[in-house]
Write a structure and sequence with these properties.
CATH class: Alpha Beta
Number of domains: 1
Number of strands: 10
Oligomer: single chain
Length: about 230
Amino acid sequence: MTIPVFGLSMCLCCIQIGLIIQVLGTYLRDTKLRDSEPTQYRAGNVDRCAKFGDGKGLMHILGFNEPDMCGDGKGGACMSMDAVLSAWSRHMAPLAAKYGDRLKLGSPAVTNGDDGTDRVGLKFLDSFLHRCNGCKIDFVNIHWYEGAHQIDYFKKHVQNALKVGNGRPVWITEFGLTSGTNEEKRAFLKEALPWLDDQRDVHRYAYQMAIQGVLINSAGNSLTDLGKAYTYA
């Protein structure tokens, strides 16, 4: 069973350490703990992040945010595979050496894009996992955006991510619906969330996002109908 913890997702830019901290109110399997997981946006000194949080340090650090996404205003880190591998070696691998199994490292977060090459989406992730020789990668991290009628595509994409991960857990740190009526979006969540909860190796997921007009109402004091569907499905 996956226990809901509400409150996705505020991004705080930590200029001094060169990354974005994503505060994820996630769905965390088998516990009600609220985690704040830092995401490497591009690359920077992340050793301080291992000490971030409750004084005991974080348990998880996520890889670079959407290195396969390029374009002004799209939010992706837009990194070549060579740049990702180099940055992982420089910034993430030392954390594995220093903190060992106490700190779990997640792969770069990839989009659900597919242009037939290994430059985007799950093919990018698969290439990274194969080329990052000897890397400690404890779980894979994916994003998914599409319309509310694409429930079958969503399930298939998650299943494909599990195959690419080759036994690693999957975190869906962003998913969202880009089209559809409110009723259609609620219907998507009512089918998707119990299905996700039944997937043993999907450890976390978070709908994008807990802001006014999406999961929170315009007054900021209650959930929208979509927010209620997400929280109580």
